[in-house]
Amino acid sequence: MQKLLIKGRKELSGNILISGSKNSTLPILAASLLATDVKLTNVPLVKDIFTMCKLLKFIGISIKIKKSNKTIHLKQKTNIKTLAPYKLVKTMRAGVLVLGPLLTKFKKAKVSLPGGCAIGTRPVDLHLFALKKLGAKIKIKDGYIIADASKGLKGAKIKFPLVSVGATENALLAAYGAKGKTVLSNCAIEPEILDLISFLKKLGSDIKIFGRTITIIGKSPKNKKINHKIIFDRIEAGTYLIAGALLGKKIVIKKIDPKTLIFEINILKKMGIKIITSKNSISISRTNNLKKIELITKPYPGFPTDLQAQFMVLMTQANGLSKIKENIFENRFMHVPELKRMGAKIEIKNKTAYVYGPSNLNGAEVMATDLRASVCLVLAGLIANNRTIINRIYHLDRGYEFLEKKFQNCKAEIKRI
Q1: Torsion angle (degrees, nearest 10) of CA 298, 304, 307, 308
Q2: Domain 22-229 is found in CATH 3.40.1190.20
Q3: Alpha-carbon gap, residue 43 to 72, rounded angstroms
């Protein structure tokens, strides 16, 4: 099994080009079921994307991936299976997003209950709640969601009891082909959701957004050929910003829109980090006087849960007591025991991590438990004394493209063994 070997305490300098967004590409790949010919550019070459492509091939989509220019070309065949089997959904939660488009276009679907990171229950009940409101008949049997809409889906007013990215995406994909008007309220409004909406508009969808309310006028899926460029990965960008804040002589994050990262940039500035933004890049350097901070994870535009673990590493180097409350997922502190083994001083009480700093971290052999926890351990290894070995890095490969190469280009000592 592959591992990462890191020799810490190396000053970082150089440029990092940010890849396309994994969390944007996955729902747009699912949305491609509604079209006949789709070309996606700026696609990240990570494991979750290849897994989703395997699933779409199984369903009956012809797929050509050009790694040289990060392009995926999808064409729909006539023989479509409305099945998403367990073997292709078990490692990737986004597989459940084929449910909405299959149901609205082909009027039935059988989709395995999803897998992914072990960071909480993350049930699909909000997805099913929305689809039932649109007229789908749904039952769970033998680990599968079996959905039927033989008479077609119909527009409805749907208010989500909780803000959910995945449920908002599935509802949007189903409402695209539903008859009449659908009004979704208390929606997620992440940049990745807006990118999906941009894609659906190219398919001819009539969609309007006001605050957390999204209105969709249903369209019959038509033969349509479209091109779409995926937005940049704001979580990857945030991760490298934190690396720059920890060890950067000068790191320049490129191919981004800094306006999308205003919340994170302001947090880093409050902690004393030196940041300069331009139209499509951010320059960041570390400080010798890192200030404590208190954070609470919230839906966008609040502080993202996907950066909680990475910011916790930064907190270990801050002066005084920092706090971070996890409000999105109940099991997203599984990286804490590994950080403590490296010398971090962290206590967990009532969904809140209390981080005492600054701590002198020491290299150790550690184990990744999920995607963001794995990259948090990479950051910890980069600032730790001596050598760190990270096991189970297949989690990392699900969401970070060319991570070692990007760090090596900034003079980090990191390699895969």
Answers
A1: 0
A2: no
A3: 7
Q: Which residues, 6+ apart, have CB-to-CB distance to 231 below 8 Å?
A: 20, 21, 24, 42, 191, 192, 195, 257
CA distance 340 to 242: 19
Q: At 352, list the tokens.
A: 């809140």
DSSP lists the bridge partners of residue 333 as none
By the 10 Å C-beta count (0-12 exposed, 13-18 middle, 19+ buried), 56 is classed as buried
**pLDDT tens readout for residues 132-162:** 999 999 999 988 999 999 999 999 999 999 9
Backbone angles phi, psi at 17, to 5 degrees: -90, 125
Let me know if 187 is a catalytic residue. no
Taking the C-alpha atoms of residue 139 and residue 132, their distance in angstroms, rounded to an integer, is 10
Q: What are phi and psi of 198, to 5 degrees?
A: -60, -40
CATH number of 4-18+232-416: 3.65.10.10
**What would the pLDDT profile of 31-85 be if each residue is shown by its tens digit?**
999 999 999 999 999 999 999 999 999 999 999 999 999 999 999 988 899 999 9
What average pLDDT does the segment 301-306 reach?
94
Q: What angle do CA 221, 20, 113 make, to 5 degrees?
A: 60
Distance CA 178, CA 135 (A): 9
Task: Give yes or no for a contact between 377 and 338, defined as CB atoms under 8 angstroms apart.
Answer: yes
Q: Which amino acid is at 201?
A: K
Q: pTM of whole model > 0.90?
A: yes
Measure the CA–CA gap between 377 and 366, rounded to whole angstroms: 8
Phi, psi of 362 (to 5 degrees): -120, 140
pLDDT for residue 134: 98
| Comma-separated ranges of CATH 3.65.10.10 domains in the chain | 4-18+232-416, 22-229
Distance CA 280, CA 292 (A): 29
Q: Which of 53, 117, 187, 376 is catalytic?
A: 117
